[in-house]
Amino acid sequence: MFLIRRGLALSLPGFLLILLLGAVPLTVILVWSFWTWDPATYWIKPNLSLDAYAAIGDAGRWSVIVGSFGKAFLAALLCLLVGYPSALAIHFVASPRWSFVLMAAFTIPFFTSYLIRAFSWRLVLGRTGMVNNFLMQIGLIDEPLDWLLFSDFAVMVGLIASYLPFVIFPLLLSLRKVEPNFLAASQDLGAGFLRTLFTIIIPLTKPGIFAGFLFVFIMAAGSSTEVQMLGGAGAPMISIMINDVMRVVNFPLAFAISAVVIVALFTIVLAGNRVFGLTKMFEDFK
Amino acid sequence: MTIGFENRTVRVVIGFLTAAALVVVYLPPLYLVGVSFNPALQPALPSLGDISVKWYVELANERGLLAALRESLLIATATTVISVSVALAAALAYLELGKLRNAWFLLVLMPMFVPGLIQGLALSVILNRWQVVPFWGTVAMGHLLWALPFAFTVILTSMVSVRRSYLLAAADLGASWWQRVTQIILPLIIPGIVGGVIFSFLLSLNEFARSSYLVGRQNTLPLVLFGKMNSGASPTIYALSGLILMASVLAVALFMYLSARRKRA
What we know:
CATH class of the largest domain in chain A: Mainly Alpha
Distance between the termini of chain A: 15 Å
Structural class of chain A: mainly alpha
Helix content of chain A: over 70%
CATH topology of the largest domain in chain A: MetI-like fold
CATH superfamily of the largest domain in chain B: MetI-like
Oligomer: heterodimer
CATH architecture of the largest domain in chain B: Orthogonal Bundle
Mean pLDDT of chain A: 87
Shape of chain A: globular
Radius of gyration of chain B: 23 Å
Number of helices of chain B: 11
Number of strands of chain A: 2
Strand content of chain B: under 5%
Strand content of chain A: under 5%
Distance between the termini of chain B: 23 Å
CATH topology of the largest domain in chain B: MetI-like fold
Low-confidence stretches of chain A: none
Number of domains of chain A: 2
Largest sheet of chain A: 2 strands, antiparallel
Helix content of chain B: over 70%
Order of helices and strands of chain A: HEEHHHHHHHHHHHH
Radius of gyration of chain A: 23 Å
Number of domains of chain B: 2
């Protein structure tokens, strides 16, 4: 009744779409990143070279790439810390009605504008924003805090707020697979809540923890909206760097940076899938 | 299902942390919506007596914004139609693919992991080489790859309600594949398709990073918004942002409510 042949035919439109709009352009810029910039035509010529990759070493570009991955790592870690209790609340604590409401509450922001949400942080964190006003009103500070906005701090806050839903859902999927009997047994044997949490629940939800971490890490590493809206001038991220390089139409360099980032991200996704079986999380289907 | 979670302290701490997470996510946009009802020029919450829809009314005069909105709606519609059709086929393919299904799932999800800016840049360079002049269609091409994984996942999730036994019984009774799809699968996954439509539309409407290298002469709404946000423009920007936020929240909330009711019925 199920036919591979039919499956392949049905997968053709999606396959072509991903191939033509995604894989082909990315492969082409990967190849072109080894070409050389030709000032005569404002374009590139097929002289194979590693110049563009060498140029990544100039002007501290490596440190921007590594720094971006570092920030993404931190954002993912913080999202997990903030998101884990919420996932526990949805799965274990809330009544069915509340659990639905909470799930909806964490889903909805996912589909609202990242740009507008990042922008709204400006109103909250700015010099005359909500936080500074409040702190001055209660007399904790006399001058508005400057580091709240256009800083790494603001970018981090924006990233966490934007990508928090990405950790909740994988966590919920893996919490659903935790056998309630294990928890009952642990309680019967006299383990307290924290002990049960750290020796049973957290180890059993490793795939969800990893998947959530991965989602946020990848989204944050490539983010441009939050960085452009909230970041300071001092510490750019990958997306800003690519925009800057493109402004002076240095195509090979922009391609080389993109290639490094894409290869790094895909390696992480595929390795993660191998170790933690991301696809397995959806295997409840039949 | 409250084993170990009946403890009062545990419940209070978890509840508090969840509330804190929700505050981080919701406080700034809510604050922005509040600010948008303040008739004053300075961004602050209005006092209760001052609430006004002044900036919302002035939106009607913002020709540039309205042109950008039209462009974005056109792009979102095109993106939605194509991404949902392709995602539906991809989800039906998932049912048939047997051992290949995990590879297929991963492949369809892959575009989600490509940073939007890089995806847009790569696509624009190729299209430029092929002499394609950027227009709304090129932006839609960029958005398609972003919407497809989400539409696919939503439709696939709704396929849980299609039991294998239904399909086997129908096949036993002589139903062709086409009959099984149109008479069993499609009616059962309508919530997934509606979800795919709403999500694709909103993801495209709000997409910023994938658009910047692909737009033609007419900018999309997020690009115009971005420009205005950075040039300290008039408070109409708050009104428009508020409007988009409220419309998106309503659309998604309504969808979730209706699909939950359907499940209970």
